[in-house]
Design a protein that fits this description.
By secondary structure, the protein is mainly β. The protein contains three helices and 15 strands. It starts with a helix and ends in a 6-residue tail after the last strand. Residues 1-26 form the signal peptide.
């Protein structure tokens, strides 16, 4: 481009600004949520869930591979409905449905916390299904990137040695109320939860996806919650939750992964240990 032509283009640009000529419209950002509603929820109607289900995540993640998330139900005690299931969707992740939690009918689970991978700046939706058959949704926006492809925190040998190890913690102290009071517990599972997007630093090949896809938790024989998990759940899955005790003496958990392994363990409620 000659200097004369460049000057003419510059002058034309200045005139366009001075005359108020509208600039070309910016490209619209694609919103994947309508498609996810169709794919995950079969296009069922979504109702405003801000008074039904809360979702808490940091606005900017410190580590995109282990982003904390808490789901909290908001139903009033006088409401005759109950939350049947909660689905966590990370819109921009390669596999957006991070987890679906099905709640035990008598456990009164009101809060669930875990850690997830976030691959891009994204909306994160929590969808609660109530006993009236309707879906209620709320969302937050999270700034994070690269969580699904981040290298594992443990080496291969360490991950193998920890595979399937399960721990249970009970947080309610005995002086806080009777056996039927609300309690808080945590289940931790040793597992690499490979996303399929991580690269082996030695071979430079992708590590195959390998993750916990089912988790069932009971107090005695009464179900507390079930999780259907995906690649977005972080390494060493960690589920913390509140529930109402039925006076059970034992807590039990069973996990399954995508390679067909089954891990199970049982603990005494008042003396969980490992």
């Amino acid at each position: 481009m000659t200097g004369h032509r460049a000057r003419l283009l510059c002058i034309a640009s200045l005139l366009a600004v001075a005359l108020g000529t509208p600039a070309a419209p910016a490209a619209e950002t694609h919103d994947p949520w309508p498609g996810l509603v169709q794919d995950i929820f079969s296009n069922r109607p979504m109702n405003d869930g801000n008074d039904i289900i809360g979702i808490e995540m940091p606005a900017r993640a410190e580590d995109a591979a282990i982003v904390p998330v808490t789901l909290r139900t908001k139903l009033q005690p006088s409401d005759s409905r109950r939350v049947v299931a909660i689905t966590l969707v990370i819109d921009e992740n390669p596999a957006p449905m991070a987890a679906k939690f099905t709640l035990g009918p008598d456990a009164n689970v009101t809060e669930i916390s875990t850690r997830v991978r976030v691959n891009n700046y994204t909306n994160v939706h929590a969808v609660a299904e109530l006993s009236d058959g309707k879906l209620y949704v709320s969302k937050v926006y999270v700034k994070a990137s690269g969580g699904c492809s981040a290298p594992a925190g443990k080496n291969v040998d360490e991950a193998k040695n920890r595979l399937g190890q399960m721990r249970y913690r009970q947080f309610t102290k005995s002086e806080q109320g009777p056996a039927t009071s609300t309690r808080e517990a945590q289940i931790m599972i040793g597992h690499p939860n490979n996303s399929g997007l991580q690269i082996d630093q030695v071979t430079q090949l992708y590590i195959p996806a390998f993750f916990v896809n089912e988790l069932h938790i009971w107090q005695d024989d009464s179900p507390v919650l079930t999780m259907e998990g995906g690649i977005s759940i972080s390494e060493d899955p960690n589920i913390r939750f509140t529930y109402v005790s039925n006076g059970a003496k034992h807590f039990r958990a069973e996990a399954k992964d995508t390679d067909g392994h089954v891990f199970d363990h049982e603990w005494k409620v008042e003396n969980p240990g490992t």
